[in-house]
Design brief:
CATH architecture of chain A: 3-Layer(aba) Sandwich
Number of domains of chain A: 1
Chains: A alpha/beta (229), B alpha+beta (401), C alpha+beta (399)
Radius of gyration of chain A: 18 Å
Number of strands of chain C: 14
CATH superfamily of chain A: P-loop containing nucleotide triphosphate hydrolases
Bound molecules: adenosine-5'-diphosphate, magnesium ion
Radius of gyration of chain C: 33 Å
Oligomer: heterotrimer
Largest sheet of chain C: 6 strands, mixed, barrel
Amino acid sequence: MIRLQGISRYFQVGDQSVHALDGVSLDIGAGQYVSIMGPSGSGKSTLLHILGLLDRPTSGRYFLNNRDTTDLDERAQAQARLEQIGFVFQFFHLVPRLTAFDNVALPLVLSGTPPEDRNDRVRQRLEVMGLADRIHHRPEQLSGGQRQRVAIARATIMNPAILLADEPTGNLDRASGKDVVDALEALVQQGITLVVVTHDPDIGSRAARRIHMVDGRVAEDSMPGGLPP
Amino acid sequence: MRTPDRLSYAGTALRWHRGRTLLTLLAMGIGVAAVVVLTSLGDGARRYVSGEFASLGSHLLVILPGRNDTAGGPPAMLGVTPRDLTIADTVALLRSPAVKRVTPIVVGEAPVSWRGRERSVPVLGTTGDFVRIRRWQMARGRFLPDGDPERAEPVCVIGAKIRDELFGSSDPIGEWVRAGQYRFRVIGVLAAGGRSIGVDKEDLVMVPVASAQTMFNNPSLFRVLVEARSRESIQEARTDVLAILRERHQGEEDVTVITQDAVLATFDRILRALTYTVAGIAAISLLVAGILIMNVMLISVSQRTGEIGLLKALGAPGRQILQLFLIEALILSLMGAVIGYLIGNAGSWFIRYLYPSVPAYPPLWASVASILTAMGTGLGFGILPARRAARLDPVAALSRR
Amino acid sequence: MRFIDLIRLSSSSIFSYRVRSTLTALGIAVGIAAVVLLTSIGEGIHRFVLAEFTQFGTNLIAVNPGKTTTQGTPLGILGTVRPLSLEDAEALARVPYATAVVPVMQGNAEVEGGEHTRRTTVLGVGSEFPQAFSYGVGLGRFLPSDDSLSPRAFAVLGSKLYSELFGKRNPLGEKVRVGSEHYRVIGVMESKGQVLGFDLDDTVYIPAVRALELFNRDSLMEIDVVYEADAPPDEVVGGIKRILSARHGKEDYTITTQQQMLDVLGSVLSVLTFAVGALGGISLFVGGVGILTIMTIAVRERTAEIGLLRALGAAQGQVLLLFLSEAVMLSGMGGVAGLLVGAGGAQLLHLLVPALPVKTPWMYVVLAELVALGVGLITGVVPAHRASRLDPVESLRAE
Ligand SMILES: Nc1ncnc2c1ncn2[C@@H]1O[C@H](COP(=O)(O)OP(=O)(O)O)[C@@H](O)[C@H]1O
Ligand SMILES: [Mg+2]
């Protein structure tokens, strides 16, 4: 489903070039549960951004469903994000003026789904996330764990094949973090491809495939080649 | 994205920042209101003047003695010429089939007295046709008699103010007043009120034209008013008047003929130009409001960087984000314009309330133009912030909270 | 807090939000520029019109027949039972401080000379006309000071009339016909151009009494009295009244001093300048709303900063002062920029359209600047007050 070939990403900082990713090659199969760990600054987020088509590699090729994404234009990339990829961030990124309902409905709104088709889907999603009684609350009225679950509901409302989570528990206490991990793993059970970046070894070790990054390279991969050993 | 969704998305953003939204609407509103009020004032003045000219009487031509060859220069207003424009000239004009009525006018000033009370007042010498041409009304009695205009009958008609000042509460009809060295019997009082260009009909004594000529020892006329048979015959009347007078003045063309339409057109042009100028100056404030919209939208974009990054992560293409921000700018300017339009209409209503005689209605072009200009500036100044939003790098946008 | 630190602190936020500050100041600048430009044009026209008037000197008094006036014109010019005569004019020579007395009779007639005829203005005047109106003779001489009641049939041509009739030929000694009478040309006036819509160059000048005869009138239209520059005008007016009332038995004439006319004209034109300035002021007002908006946003946005300042020991008054000075600096900068653009624009306009006189009135410039600063102050008060009233603990919690 995902194939990276020699992906590098350089940042030009002044007259110095930072190698955030340095020749990463990786295959991730459909339905895999992958955790990415590594020290701060090792390129985890950068990798996730490229996987999510938010960022383009400086060199290398990225095949998504056997289609080369490097030549996709901005609109096609946006379309792919809308339909195939969901994002969950460390800082939730909920729109403060919108209620939980409206935040979750955003992707449907962007895709032009008629209102009558949205209502049930959004409610159902929020109920699954255990937020049935928080539907019309704004982010400031929700706890951190609840916010992140709203964000997960929003990331999955379009039924994407891939869910990318960048330190989803990094801003939460242990109990809320557990709720969030449970919610994510429930999605894996339903067949979603989950890539989660984390600092927490307990969470990282739960994944079927564990990738360790150092200095923009894959230092360890529990399933090189994307296949069980 | 569906249009109602676009609108409601932009709407929530504007409602969320209520204070700045209201202030921006106020700024745009002031600009549009200023344009609407000022153009209604300008256009009101124009219509007022048109109305005044219409009240002068229909199909009117004015003959002034004297003519200048200076192209485009003012006509010889004082009109003192070696060869007089006479009552006989006036009567001769009736030969033209295009001419319906004529009336000669002599103007001057003389002391007028009754039982020891004396005042210096404007004296206007004319004929019975004057009231028919100018459509003046009488308050009491009757106007100057018809008949031979060369006859200096000792009768006069007075304005309301003269009646009050000379006669107080006693009845003036039938009384004899002295004007200069002559005595006149009062046969009528002009109806007060109603304005009339060039003459204050309340402060006026009217006498037969021949009497005025004797009084001022001046055989020449000041003006001759000519009423054409119809609107279509105005030009024909003008040609005839010039021909008849040239013939009577030994082939010399020594008069100026002004048609009511020409004067009206001139006033109309001047007042229109004035209205446009004033509207233009007021429209500068729309520019300032546009700059404010740009400023507020730029701030909005920088404050909502995270939101924009999120939208991109959720799969919104740049074009969609551009549209969302443009719609916000457009809502700001359009709502501001509508508010301004309403305030402006209230303002012009207030002007009409204060000056009932001035038809101060905002002209349609001004309302349409000001609202379109407001929307144009909103769009024009919204483009830059919206493009900035659309082009934000999603990764950078997301990393900034 | 020292003043210099206040300025430094508030200017630091102005400069750190560069685009925003520029646009805010730009709003004020457009408003000020509009005011300055419009009042410059208004004042330019004001001066131009006054200069047109005063080119005849300011120590001038006009006497017209008749007492009543409509729309500023004495009706006695048109017809009166109490004429102003040439003898009246001669008697006025005895008025104290009078340096010149000019009888005036104006009409319109056909003038024939060379091989051409032209309908034009006829001015019957006295011999002191050129000196009274500081209007020079270009060629030959002006009408001589003959016996004013039976002067010789001499005529002087305005420069345009001269060239229309005679082209470039020497007209001196030539005959011209004015109406039905013949005159000998003895001079041509220098060119004066249009004066307030009246073309003095397209005019023939003949002795006043001959004009009265030509037009069959027994009253002059006007008598102009010029007096010594440093003489008290009241005494001159008093002298005129004494002499004329003695001759007429009552005050049946109207006296208008040039100063009165200038005063009326000046106040009308000042109102005009003020009106266009006020129109431009609408934009300034909108610019003020802009400052209010931006400062309101700034206070919200910088809530945390305000909380920090308060935590560090800033008093409410200091926070207020900080935001106020920011608003005033924004409007002041906009004001200066607008002034430069407005005054520069006025000069540029003058270069492009030389016929349009411009003059930047410093009174309005200072006023506009003060208004700009005032706008900053007033619109800054509400946001600054709100900033100063923020609860420090709440503000620190703000993200
Ligand atoms: N926009 C950027 N500009 C410059 N350097 C960047 C940028 N984004 C990331 N980097 C650098 O790339 C490296 C990898 O960053 P990142 O992927 O965020 O690390 P991680 O998420 O593993 O902590 C770091 O050294 C970081 O400083
Ligand atoms: Mg990271």
